[in-house]
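User: Sequence in, structure out. Go.
Assistant: Echoing your sequence, followed by the structure tokens.
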Amino acid sequence: MKVLIVDDNRDAAESLAALVRVVLDYDVCVQYSGASAIAMAGEYRPDVVILDVNMPGLDGLQTARILKTDRRLEQKTFIAHTAEDGVFVRKVASRIGFHQVVAKGNTNGVSELIDLLSDVERSTHNHKHPR
């Protein structure tokens, strides 16, 4: 499964990418800005996009809006990864089409992300290979 992680905090992005690679053995691409994610996402064609909400320039919400206009990505799973997971962010993220908002900076959030990614892979696998 292919996962695109977008976060301006390089340490956070690389740590999450390493965890996803080691624990789940997924193909991971890391970008550090919304603009760079938009530039490469269509070619990379991720199954899941994990976006930091608070980034300079194009934030994660704006980036998701733009990515979802690409027919190759519109039905993919989008996860907002944010330190700001209040009601407002959750409402806006839901309207844009994020599947989930996950709190950043705690072990519960990391476990939740790993579980979500595993669920996406299972549902994708079941969809492609009905029993």
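User: And one key feature?
Assistant: The chain has a mean pLDDT of 91.
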